[in-house]
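Q: Focus on the shape:
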Amino acid sequence: MSDCLTHNCIVLSVFFAARGLAYALVLIGKITRSSPGNDAMKRVAAAIQEGAKAYLSRQVRSVSLIAVIITALLFWWKQSFPVPVGFLLGAVCSMIAG
């Protein structure tokens, strides 16, 4: 029973992940086709984009440092390879998504 439930949950997770990615692609297409607005709107958008890039850059540095420390602690605590590597892979994927 448990194996069947686990398999069904994995299938549902993959299905909803694919559906979410497809919807994200639809939204990206819609946004890129829309008008950027007038000059004032473009200036505000540029300022927001600059601030967002600065914020994400700072976040990547902070999270990277913390991820390296946690990975080292996991390796020291678990003394195995898969757990810290899995954590680090998740952190890298999270940063890529950001």
